[in-house]
Amino acid sequence: MDTSHYTRLTSAEIASLWTSYLNNTMSICVLKYFLKTAEDEEIKSVIKDGLHYSKNYNKIITDIFHAEQFPIPQGFTETDVNLNAPRLFTDIFIINFLKSMAKIGLGTYCLAYSLASRNDVRSLYKHCTETTTILDEKSLEVLKNKGIYTRSPYISYPEKVRFVHKKNFLAGFTTKRRPLTAQEITHLFTNLDTNILGHMLMIGFAQTAESNDIKEFIWKGQKIAEKHKKQFSQKLMEDHLPTPGPWDSGVTKSKEAPFSDKLMLFMISFLTASGISNYGLAMGASPRHDISFLYARLLSELGTFAENAADLVIEKGWFEEPPQSENRRKLADT
User: How many helices (H) and strands (E) does the chain have?
Assistant: First the structure.
């Protein structure tokens, strides 16, 4: 007996598809510009793959939306990118940026896959996860081949299995605090590396933004990234662990904007949201009190910055409203 029946998209599936579509329209604009300005052929090959995947994802999402008679988000178009703008970012910055975006994509797509129930949506996010894994592998190989991949710090292997019996294992505000755990090192190192990228990205954006208020806001974000870099670096250096340094200057002297202010502000909001998620995860994995307190403090700062970004986007009329549940009270009152 045929038990197949039509199933509408769930709120989780709508959220994933709608957000993915917007993010991919942004990625397409950015990758087109990177492809035009990158010089290294190995790096250009990775950019081409990323551009192909982003276009393919959005084609599948568009087909799903059309079948559901769901309005296609506007996102970003060719009006948000100037392919004739001079080179703003170096090749080393671009390949590190691609590796970082692949890492974010893997987390996002795996979550979307696990939350989806419809076969077509699960198939899409399985495909996204598989292809983004390929992009991550290719980015990593290019970084290693060029000798510019920064590995997490090495630590000695434990000699035997041990259990914690003293509560001072959690202490962090005394002079007798324990060394960092592998998990704490991993999150400090990763968040430091991410802020290095964000710091350089915002220098390039501030250098080319057209509106003065956008420019000033981006400079504030750059200062936050610089501050967070120092905080994470200090924690690692206290344990005599190496810290990642800038890959190179990252940004050229160009002042002509390759991207619209709208796109730059959206990307900053996107990366800030990713940072908030990373800090929350790190705080949960960091039992030492001074480390968890540091993340809590920096989370508050990022949250305020994210809210200010949203206020600015709304003020400019650029905030594309996400799908929402019905306003039952409004329906009842009309």
Answer: 9, 0
**pLDDT computed for residue 3 by the predictor:** 45
Cβ contacts of 254 within 8 Å, gap of 6 or more: 85, 86, 87, 88, 207, 208
Q: Which long-range contacts (CB under 8 A, 24 or more apart) does 273-279 make?
A: 273/306, 274/104, 274/194, 275/191, 275/194, 275/195, 275/198, 275/302, 276/302, 276/303, 276/306, 277/107, 278/187, 278/190, 278/191, 278/194, 279/191
In which residue are the tokens 């080179």 written?
A: 87
Token pair of 67 as six digits: 């079948």
- Give pLDDT tens digits for 261-281: 999 999 999 999 999 999 999
Q: At residue 323, does pLDDT exceed 60?
A: yes
Architecture of domain 176-316: Up-down Bundle (1.20)
Token pair recorded at residue 305: 């910055």
Mean pLDDT (whole number) for 243-265: 88
Give 152-195 pLDDT, tens digit per residue: 999 999 999 999 988 889 988 876 889 999 999 999 999 999 99
Predicted TM-score of the model (pTM) = 0.93
- Give CA–CA dist 56/95, Å, rounded: 21
**Structure tokens of 14?**
């709508």
Name the CA radius of gyration of the chain, rounded: 22
Classify 251 as helix, strand or coil: strand
pLDDT level of residue 1 (50, 70, 90 thresholds): very low
Q: Which CATH class is domain 11-145?
A: mainly alpha
Query: How far is the C-alpha of 89 from the C-alpha of 256, rounded, in Å?
Result: 12
Q: Compute how many other C-beta atoms are within 10 angstroms of the C-beta atom of residue 98.
A: 24
> In the chain, which segments carry CATH 1.20.1260.10?
11-145, 176-316
The per-residue b/e assignment along 231-264, b for 16 or more CB within 10 angstroms, e otherwise, is bbbebbeeeebebbeebeebbeebeebbbbbbbb
User: For position 248, what pLDDT does the model report?
Assistant: 60
